[in-house]
What does this fold into?
Amino acid sequence: KREQSLQDVAIVVTALPETLLENAGAKDIKDMTILTPGLTVTSTSNESSTTARIRGVGTVGDNPGLESSVGVVIDGVYRPRNGVGFGDLGEMQRVEILKGPQGTLFGKNTSSGVINVITKAPSFDYGVELEATAGNFGAVGGSASVTGAIVDDVLAGRLYIARRTRDGFLDIDPGDGPRSVGDDNDLNFYTARGQLLFQPSDIFDLRFIVDYTNRDENCCAAVQIRTGPT
It folds into this structure.
C-alpha cells in the first residue's frame, strides 16, 4: 500500500479528496453515490442491511449475516457487516472506491470492489471545528471536533462527536398494531470517534482509534400501490 499515480494503477479507482467531500456535504457512504459513477447504495428492510453495488454487482438480501460483494474498509480495518460502516464517517481525509474484484490486500477478498475510507488523523496543531445543519421534515444535526498535541511532536489526539435527527417522511397508519410509530424513514443516531497518534520519529507512527455509534431508526417501509389476488 503506497501512494502512486492513478495513471500507473492497473484498476479503476475513484478518489474523493477532503475538499470535494466537504463541498458535497458527504457524511456517509450513501452520500458518495452522487460523486462516484457506478456506485449504488440501497436499504430494503433496515439500515443494518444496507447493500452497496459497484457497476451493478452487489450482495442483495436482508440477512445481516451475508458478507457483501463490496468491501467496506475504514482506516485499514475491514468491516464485515455493511451496516457497521454506514454511519456518520466524520472528518475524512479521502475516500477511494476501487472498482472490480480485489484480493486480500485490504483484509478480505471481494468480488465487486472496495470502499476504502481514510479518516482525518490527529494534528499536532490545535484546532476546533463545529458544524450544524437543518432541513425539512424537522432535520437537525451537528458535529464538533477538537485536535491537538498531548505531548509536543510525539503524541496527538482527535475527538469527533455528532448527533443527527429527522422526522420520517413516510406516514404510517399502524392500525391495531403492534406498531405504534406513525412515520417511517426517520433519522436518529449519535456517533463518536477518538484517536491517538503516536509519532516518536519521522519513520514510524501509530494510530489508535475507537469509534462508537448508536442508531435507533425506522426504515424502509414500502407503499402498496395495488392490492389484488396476485
